[in-house]
Amino acid sequence: MADFQGRSAIVTGGARGIGAAIVAELAKEHLGVVIADLLDHDGAALAADLAPNVIFRHLDVTDEDGWRRVIDDAEAEFGPLGVLVNNAGILDFGSIETQSPSLFRHVVDVNLYGSWLGMHLAVPRMRAAGSGAIVNISSTAGLTGYAGIGAYVASKWGLRGLTKAAAVELGSASIRVCSVHPGPIHTPMTAGMPDSVAAAQPLPRFGEPEEVAAMVRFLITEATFSTGSEFVLDGGATA
Ligand code: NAD
Question: Which of 35, 88, 119, 202 is the most exposed place for a label (fewest CB within 10 A)?
Answer without folding.
Answer: 202
